User: What shape does this take?
Amino acid sequence: MFSRDKWSEIIEALSSNWFRTLLTAFGVLWGIFILVILLAAGKGLENGVKQGFGGIATNTMFMWSQTPSKPYKGLPKGRRYNFKTEDVAEIKRNIPNLRFVSPRNQLGGFGGNNNVIRGLNSGAFNIYGDYPEIIQQEPMDITSGRFVNYSDINEKRKVAVIGDGVRSTMYDKDEEVIGSYIKINGVNFMVIGTYKKKGNNGGNAEEAQKEIYVPFTSFSQAFNQANNVGWMAITAEDGYSISDLKGGILEIIKSRHSIHPEDDRAVGYFDLFEEFNKVNGLFIALKAVAYFVGVLVLLSGIIGISNIMLIVVKERTNEIGVRRALGASPWSIRGQILMEAIFLTIVSGMAGIVMATGVIYLINLALSGADTSEMMFANPSVDLGVVMTALGILVFSGLIAGLIPAQNAIKIKPVDALRTE
Assistant: This one.
């Protein structure tokens, strides 16, 4: 328990040479300031990169057919084949712990441009034939109307959900969209909804809004796809890795389409979960670097405090001798020096945290009015855990800074101290 007299003594000792104390405190202030700013900048970069995923289900893989590179069962290499709707059912039946297996077909994009016509307006857009689950794998905001549902799938309704980019191209500003018709490759589809994609779609946010979604079944019927599947979006359940399930999925496809088991080029895929883990690993490394650099800068400030406390102990040799002569215990002397070091460290460190918080606030204030959807930096921040970690570092640093001076103080003999002028 600390008395008022002891606290008054601590403040008086530190303020006796306030300029020296201020310069010493600045080292700790700057160190903790750099630490918090680096961590906040790393978090801002992480938020910006993850924002690019647009809320997409990261435990997902995308799979498409390619040409086999090895002959197998009398079939030549280099042949073309297509996924089938039966493949989807087989994957669902034999691979456990899958949340979604969404077959997809596509016009436009890699398959060539396809005209979409409405009245005198026309445009070239990507058209996707999808199941309703795709909205949970590639999240989007429905800005009006609704998305495709299973009634549309079962009844093969010719309905479409268009992006805001399609709307601005094909419609006048105040024109009613819901219930109108657009012609895709000569086939009429009724617009039932509009959407706006989240994220920046790999850095191409504008193109992400220029897509059209129609029911998979009506797409197949309207554009003569039969039971062909262009590609699949497959998502694992929470707690399971799509990377671990990927091997079984590829085995099923290879078996059903007579592909050599060791042919790694016949089935194309993109494992988003694997790539996402690489990104997370990068940010863990960046956080470690931030702590490393911040702690090194902070250490230089701690060394400064330790040096100043050694000088203070030297200047107070007479005082310490008198206290020892009057019966002060070594723990009392040690505690006094340690408290002064800890107090100076914590006060200067908290000032650094306040300064860093102010800078982070100003950065967020500047970003609040800007469109960050295409930026690689968003919402820099530090959480409570970081602040508590910083406080822990400060307390520990204060103990380290005061330990050597405190040990030197209790080594002073009362008689020798009293002789010192």
Observations:
- Residues 119 and 236 are 43 Å apart (CA to CA).
- The chain has 14 helices and 14 strands.
